[in-house]
Protein 1
Amino acid sequence: MCARKIEPDEVLAEIANYTLREDAVGAETRRVAHIAFMDFLGCAFAALDEQDCLRLIRPLAPQMKVPGGARVPGTAYELDPASAAFGFSSLGRWLDYNDSWFGKGGGGHPSDMFGAILAMGDYLSRNSDGRRGVTMGDLLDAGTKAYEILGLHLHVNDFGGFDFTGPLKAACAAVTTRMLGGGFDEIVAAVSQGWVDGQPLRVVRSPRTGPRKNWASADAASRAVWLAIKTMEGETGYPDVLTTPVTGLYDAERNGASFEFERGFDTFVMDTIQFKVYPAQFRTQTALEAAIALHPSIADRIADIDRIEIETHARTIHTVDKTGELHGPADRDHCLQYIVAIGLIFGELQYRHYGDDIAADPRVDALRDRMLVRESLDYTRGYEDKSIKTDANA
């Protein structure tokens, strides 16, 4: 007797149907997706100067080469698609310069998934045997759908102490499974496997931010590619992974709360994605702009500053209001006070300003000690109002 087919959870079915839609992405959205992809490439190539990043993305077997595999642009690496996805996604994320998306419980960086999508596309195109390979249009459409799936999960759902890389893995698994030729059942299976993995902890970002935040998304994207390939090789999924009592995700990780969505899957996230001006946590961007604007008038009077008052919204205070010792570049690029100090002292911010040599400048901590950070209720309302979506600082 055949086993009874389990109907997939509603959310998984909606993701699969959306991923399969041929008409989901219009010309204007694809134009924005092209900008997002080029932005990701720029971030990745800039990170090629960072030795800590290059050390991290080295293959576990240093001489490993996979003929016909996926390449890591900017390097000589030719790896399996999952390893290439980890390498290129890590490069794109390393400088904290890539695009951002925010939601109820924090936010994420959707372009982290482009490394996996490009690795999969490269692998498929190199092994197409004369058939049509993956076009740039295919890549941009896959990216748009991945942005949407991740972004809508984050929009109104609070993941608490779990990291945003959980839904990122689900989104990436959906689109890379489709790139491999998967249909409805395969997409459901791959996405479900992503949720079965369990979710990483957000401790890598808060309260002390560590270097793993630079590669946590790459790890999830790489795992998504691995799951997609295994699914297409016949690995079955768990279509009721969300709703199964006790051991399913809703009960085991969310105290029984289901995912909520304010809108259906379309192109909302890509259409409204936020790009950074500086390599720093997004909620510090406008504070840094103000500091840089003030630099010419106070650069020779740093020692005379009595106090610096910063008004911001509640989420900024929760995530990047940091006093005391900072532990390395990753902690510094998530510290509002450090970033403002750099802007006031140097009139610019580049990734090199997070290094130990700059951090040792006594002016930096002297200014940090004179900063008062307080909430502006107007700014908090602007941040929480999804029709406005401001990240204001003064």
Protein 2
Amino acid sequence: METIRHSIDIGCSPQALYKYIAQPWRWHEWHPNSKSAEAQNNALGKHDTFEEVYEIRVLPFLPLKLRRLLQWRVVAEMPYSYWEIEATAKDRLINIAYNYDPRDTAVRFTRTVKFELSGITAVLTPLLKKRNTAMSEVTLANMKRIIESTAYPQPELPGRDRKP
């Protein structure tokens, strides 16, 4: 499995960051490759599932894009400190772990992505790893900018609320 890991310090509470990340229908706000996501719950816990439409341009100078519907499942959670999800699609397996390490005035956020491609798509593994590595840096910078903006509310995460 290929692994991509990045960390960033984000000036917020672990609760605010955890709540934001555990809402995949908001991922498009910070992750340019996430096009949409749907879930049944307002806060996703272990064994909950959701779908995401993911699109990536393998080579930035070509218009060719790979678009996949990913079926995600939450495989582990420790509120405000760890959230892990796995996805499958017809030609890939993806595992993402989010770690939240509180610091004095920030949270050290670490995003670890592991993926394995199969079939004809497997030949694109080196290119996709390079693109996803670059996109991970962009996504974390976007997340930091959004979370640290004065317009973003930072409430405590209540118990699991169901979407109305």
Protein 3
Amino acid sequence: SAESIFTKWGEESGWTIYADRSRNSCLIERVDPAENVVQMGLTEIKAIGYLGIFTKANIDLKEGEDTVIVAFDDAVYTGTATRKTKHLPDGYKGGYILTDDPEFVDLVQRKYEMIVFPGKEYAIVINLDGSLKAIDAARECFTDLNGG
């Protein structure tokens, strides 16, 4: 949101951890070897997390919301991606999905890649190297902002 001001809190395993003191929240961000930008954090409703994926690939997301499939080996999740059009670097497009499933976060931490199917004819492979330690660092950031 326009009120959010993220400042760098730290780095862990190739991920940057950002703090938003106005919301007492943190997020992690990484640019993977294929130049895909991955962001993960919590919404204002702390029980709901988000996963944002932004790429230079031609993913052709529809305006508003579109169906997306995320796979970790044999675990497959179907959800709705909300297209983001503002505040993206030139050439990037993408969106985010929301989840309140702790198993999803566990898979992001334990797996080294996830496959995202934003359309029917192609997929994007997202490298998750270092996500285990980065999510733990984001939890530390959150605890730091929220007084222990």
Protein 4
Amino acid sequence: MEQQMNNFVGLSAVLTGFAADTIAPNIDPINIKAEYFTKFTAEISNYAAILSAYELLKSQGKTDQEIGEAILAIADYEMPCRQLIFLWYSGAWATANGSMTSSEMLSAKSYTQGLAWQVMQSHPMGDSNYRYGYWANEPADLSGYTGNNN
């Protein structure tokens, strides 16, 4: 189970462009990765194969770019990976039904932890870790939010 979680975090980092230790820090009182992992494994029947493919490509020394391209090139993995990207960025699970797509917010916690807020260098209304008056200062570079310097 721990290896699957490590692969889940690694795959999530590859797909989102965020550093693994940014989306799943060592000290993590919120632990959103567990909520997302539970949803992903409950909804995606071939999740184990996707995580194994990630692990294999990583063990072969592939770059994040190569891993992402290889996994998304597999037809059976593309939609689940897109759903995972959407989950990390929005905190909601998207389901496609024919030409319609609907989404469902997992929880209030998932909403506040959506990566879209970090990309926007913002925070959801009513929930902020920033001190009052933070807006008077220039925001950090985007890499300060994503953990990636690419």
